Amino acid sequence: MKSKKKAEPFTGEGPLKKPIKKRQLSKHKKPKFKRQESWRYKRVKENWRKPCGIDSKMRKKVKGWPPSPEAGYRSPKKIRGLHPSGYKEARVQTVEDLNGLDPETQAIRIARTVGGKKRVEILALADKRGIHVLNPRIAKELEEFEEEEVEEEEEEKEREKEKEETK
Asked: CA-CA distance, 43 to 23, in Å (whole number)?
């Protein structure tokens, strides 16, 4: 049985530099695979479907017909499924999700549903631990959120006083 080594992230140097470069080059050469005869009929979309007719030119790989997906178009096995930066992606929804992460090989993507306050906490802890964040949307600092809450409470109290005075 082969021993499994840890995947190293792409930092510009190291063993993953060559495979990632190779994937980037081969992506430019890879054609956009089209469904057979999608260019002929409007009702047939371009989404790939395997041609399976007995006389299908595309299935027979006749010269002049669009190419079909094959194993040769695949990316190198070492980097398959990795982010272009060379890190494995980990989805984070809470601050506790950062606990089991390895900053050398993994990068985080903060979930879309995470709000501003929690996002600030996650970003601060990730920065402290040296974890790479793939979607570091700039959010307000935690103190700014607290200041806004205090201001909103004061405004609500003022509104209530105005309502009482008008009665």
From this structure: 34
